[in-house]
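Re-run with default settings, no changes from the original entry. Doing this only to confirm the output is reproducible before filing.
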Amino acid sequence: MRTVIALVLLLVLSGARDAILVPEVSQHEVRLRQGFTGTELLLFGAILSPEGTRAAQDYDIVVVLKGPTQAIVVREKAKVAGIWVNADSIELRSAPSYFALASTRPIDRIVDDKTAAIYELGLRWLQLSPIGAIDPEEQQRFASGLVDLNQRTGLYRQEEEGVTVSEQVLYQARIALPSRVPTGTYTAETFAITKGQVVASASSTVIVHKLGIERAIAEFADQYGFLYGLVAVALSIAMGWIAGRLFALI
């Protein structure tokens, strides 16, 4: 209902002739329970003219799902005397905890580098905001390392040609959330692009949160970090002692 009202207001107030996006998400809430193995979100919607009819031309659609940003320290490993140790590091002010992009075509065939950088359309265009002065080449090396690591764990992904458009009206994209997906408020943004220009955009939100014992443990760890650490160490020692006693009896 709110989507329909928003569309009507846009039709009345907007004098622009560009497309209007009406986005939706299959789930606005993802609940992480014990045994959660991941899920898939369907991001879909309609591309309409200001009159509410089918758009008169074809548009490229880019969908971006971004998790909450966080400050993070990226460390580089180096092998010293046969042992891997922490070497150089960089602190990033606003790295997204999750990032997924799907598009109708490869990004470099839809927009130029400047537009891609402005809207962060792709993994290579993430604005990671390093803290302090740093050499650009070194910054790029650390950024590439972070992206590669998160791609391998499923937290960063980019699926060009992952959006399908039917009859110039309906679009859809499927985006996977891995089992270790971070909690928080996610933003799902949709961009309509023609002739290299973003002519319309719309967004919605997805809440990812834990339930049950996992939520209780996470809240306890956040509120009582030191005590949580002591409990974790005590449990580890107790489990080790019990295991030792069991093996001694065998």
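Residues 149 and 156 are 9 Å apart (CA to CA). Residues 3-16 have pLDDT under 50 and may be disordered.
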